[in-house]
Each structure stands twice: as C-alpha cells, then as structure tokens.
What does this fold into?
Amino acid sequence: MNLPNALTYSHTLLSECVGPGDTVVDATVGNGHDTLFLANLVGPSGHVMGFDIQAAALKETQTQLTLTGLAPQVTLHATGHENVEEFLTPTTTVTGAVFNLGYLPGGDKDLITKPSTTLTAVKALLNHLPRGGRIILVVYSGHPGGQTERQAVVDFCRQLPQKTYQVLQYGFINQIHHPPFLLAIERR
It folds into this structure.
C-alpha cells in the first residue's frame, strides 16, 4: 500500500467534513472530478457550486453530471473563483471547498490560477466556513507562474491565526519535478 498523493488525500479530508445536505464549493472545476466527488458527498439535499473560466471544462463537467444523475445538486458558474462571494448569502455556510491550482490538465497551459484571485476566493470562503469546515488547496507549482502562487498561498496560510484555524501541509518531499502538495485550512 502506498501513501496517498495530494489529490487523493484531498478527498479523504473532504469526506471527513462534508455530508448530505451541505453546501460546498469546487473553486476550480477543471475536468469535473472534484465536482462529481462533492456532489456524491452532499447528496440530493446538498448543493455544489462550481467555478471555472473555461467553457470546455464546464461543458465536460455538465455532461458528466447529467450522465451520473448528479446535475440537480450542482450549479456551475462560468466565472473565476474570485467571484464566489457574489453567489453566497451572508448566512450561507460552506462546509468544504477545494482548489486545484495551476492549469487544466490537457487544456491551455497559459490559463493558470493566479495568487490574487485564489487568495480573494479563499478569504471570502473563510467567512462562510463553520467550525470543522475545511478549505483544501492542491498546489501544482511546476509551471510558469506556479512558484509565485505557491509562495503566496503558503505565506497566507502561515499567517492565519492558530486560535481560529489549523493549517496542514501534506506532500512528498523526495520527488522530482515539483510534486503537488496539499494545504488544508480547518476552522477550529
């Protein structure tokens, strides 16, 4: 048995805090894998909000949601995750959120997540996180611009007050080519 990679471990961490009826966010829909995973966790009474700027990603994800019967509990938004606050009411509780930073695998490698938009989204989601809720960031940094975003999110997470949040960093340290790692922010 092998240790789980960052992406696999992100699902473990989300399954521990997300359940039927919850509201969750997939901040980077991409190929839709996290969206479908979250839709299964929240069930028919829950709600997944997905965000992506690439029409092809949203179209493919919508197709998968329709084929699996999970479409009713998912709303996809063709906008960047920095706009998440516009889709939340002041009383909305978001028990889990996931970000896969970098670019869409198989997509345009020039379209990447950016530190400013990512941190805008994370800050907005922190205001809606209940005790025990988690924001998961899977950080891919081996592309142009990736190291800058990596440093920005790590620096942001380091300064979060430990009385309010726990922050976990998980990843392999003996692999080549900038392996992805995970940051998990949990409200205490």
In short: The chain has a mean pLDDT of 95. Helices lie at 6-17, 33-42, 55-68, 115-126, 146-158. The first strand starts at residue 23 and ends at 26. The chain is about 30% helix and 20% strand.
